[in-house]
Amino acid sequence: MNGRFKKGQSGNPGGRPKALTPDGKTLSELAREHTAEAVQALVGVLRDGEASHAAIVSAATAILDRAYGRPQQSMSLELKQDEGAAAALEAARKRAAEAVALPH
To answer: Torsion-angle region of residue 10: left (phi > 0), alpha (psi -120 to 50) or beta?
Structure first.
């Protein structure tokens, strides 16, 4: 079989195994147990404002990130096209097409 899987067949049908803590919980489950405490730490820093709390904010953020994931970031892009930009874009497309067509 040359080390390849049949078309449409996964090499890992069960998926990635979950990393479990010694008590059998996932890291996400364990982090969620501390959500309230993490939020309280963030609120405390907001009210206190001392720079020495940077480590607390970092830890609280890490707990929240692991429990719920990082917030999605969005980006917008506005393009203004002039004749020079259009010609440069067309030249770049042509070079890309030629590069793909080259034998490897």
So the answer is: beta
Which token pair is 72? 């999605």
> What three-state secondary structure class fits 23?
coil
CB distance 56 to 41 below 8 Å: yes
Q: How far is CA 22 from CA 19, 25, 26, 27, 55, in A?
A: 10, 7, 9, 10, 26
The pair of three-digit structure tokens given for residue 76, joined into one six-digit string? 């917008």
Side chain identity, residue 10: S
Q: Is the whole-model pTM more than 0.70?
A: no
Mention every residue, 6+ apart, whose C-beta is less than 8 A from residue 34.
63, 67
Residue ranges per domain, the chain? 19-71
Residues 14-24: pLDDT tens digits?
A: 776 667 777 88
